[in-house]
């Protein structure tokens, strides 16, 4: 999980959004999609984002729990014979979606200053008017 996701594109996007907000451009909605293998870490991260956004006065829609994706893998227990003897493993990917409506420069600044867990993947999409 730690190698799969990175926070750098999120930070670069927030810097770009901050500069456009200060130039007078206004984003109508920001959509955040968060993914993690551990739902407890994901819920703590979502709660921190919601608290930071509400503190700045912007409206927030969500968090909306998305369907959990389950990846199942079946492997043989023995390397040589006994094909009937197998083991099954699964990975669950939990996801949440947030919409930030009427984001201000203070909202974007508070999001850049947040210390997010490294296990959580954040996908950001800005939707204009």
If you had to describe this structure to a student in words, what would you say it looks like?
This protein is an alpha+beta fold. The protein has a single domain (8-67, 94-127), classed as Ribosomal protein S10 (Alpha-Beta Plaits). It has three helices and four strands. The protein has a four-stranded antiparallel sheet. The longest helix is centred in the middle third of the chain and has 18 residues, at 39-56. The two termini are 35 Å apart. The mean pLDDT is 82.
Outline the secondary-structure elements.
Elements: H1 8-22, E1 29-36, H2 39-56, E2 59-76, E3 86-101, H3 105-112, E4 121-127
Helix pairs in contact: 1-3, 2-3
Backbone CA Rg: 19 Å
Query: So what's the CATH class?
Result: Alpha Beta
Tell me roughly what share of residues is in helical segments. 25-40%
Q: Return the average pLDDT rounded to an integer.
A: 82
SSE run: HEHEEHE
CATH superfamily: Ribosomal protein S10
Q: Pairing-aware structural class of the strands and helices?
A: alpha+beta
Overall structural domain count: 1
In the CATH hierarchy, the architecture is: 2-Layer Sandwich
Q: What distance separates the N and C termini? A: 35 Å
- Based on CA inertia axes, which overall geometry fits? elongated
Could you tell me the CATH topology label: Alpha-Beta Plaits
Total number of β-strand segments?
4
Low confidence ranges: none
Number of helices: 3
| Binned strand content | 35-45%
Task: Please describe the biggest sheet, giving its number of strands, its sense, and whether it closes into a barrel.
Answer: 4 strands, antiparallel
Give the strand order of the largest sheet, numbering strands 1, 2, ... along the chain. Answer: 2-3-1-4
GO molecular function: structural constituent of ribosome; tRNA binding
Keywords: Ribonucleoprotein, Ribosomal protein
GO biological process, one term: translation
Function: Involved in the binding of tRNA to the ribosomes.
């Amino acid at each position: 999980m730690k190698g799969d996701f990175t926070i750098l594109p999120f930070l670069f996007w927030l810097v770009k959004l901050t500069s456009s907000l200060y130039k007078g451009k206004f984003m109508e909605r920001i959509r955040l999609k968060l993914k993690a293998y551990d739902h407890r870490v994901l819920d703590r991260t979502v709660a921190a984002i919601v608290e930071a956004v509400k503190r700045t006065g912007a409206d927030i829609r969500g968090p909306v729990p998305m369907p959990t994706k389950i990846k199942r893998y079946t492997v043989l227990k023995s390397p040589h014979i006994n094909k009937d003897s197998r083991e099954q493993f699964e990975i669950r990917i939990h996801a949440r979606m947030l919409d930030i409506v009427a984001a201000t420069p203070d909202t974007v600044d508070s999001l850049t200053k947040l210390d997010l867990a490294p296990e959580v993947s954040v996908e950001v999409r800005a939707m204009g008017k």
